[in-house]
Amino acid sequence: MDGWLKEVAPSTELRRWFADDPAKWHEFCRRYTAELDANPQAWRPLRDSTGDVTLLYSARDGERNSAVALRVHLLAQRAGSTSATS
After folding, report:
1. Contacts with 24 (C-beta within 8 Å, 6 or more apart), sequence order
2. How far apart, in whole angstroms, are the C-alpha atoms of residue 60 and residue 43?
3. Which terminus of the chain, N or C, has less C-beta within 10 A?
4. What does the pLDDT look like over 30-73, one tens digit per residue?
């Protein structure tokens, strides 16, 4: 691992609220996207990377976790989209 961008992770408050509840997934994505949009200097190095980026997470659900939401956000930003809440 070459680096850890801790400030890109969802806030403790958001993670606790989400609590890996699938019913809260879309709202989690919306709130996390808002956090990311408020702190673009934190995630821009990931978006602008020319090499491989590996996103790590510690959640049981491989389909609904912060790494998945971050990936969607980064790809949307690369494409020039303003919404990443899929």
Report:
1. 17, 18
2. 24
3. N
4. 999 999 999 999 999 999 988 889 999 889 999 999 999 999 99
Instruction: Answer positive or negative: Cα dihedral of 69, 31, 47, 53.
Output: negative
Q: What is the identity of the amino acid at 49?
A: S
What DSSP character marks residue 9?
S
Structure token digits, residue 55: 């996103």
Contact 18, 24 (CB under 8 A): yes
One-character DSSP codes across 12-70: HHHHHHHTT-GGGHHHHHHHHHHHHHT-HHHHHHHHT-SS--------S-SSSSHHHHH
pTM: 0.86
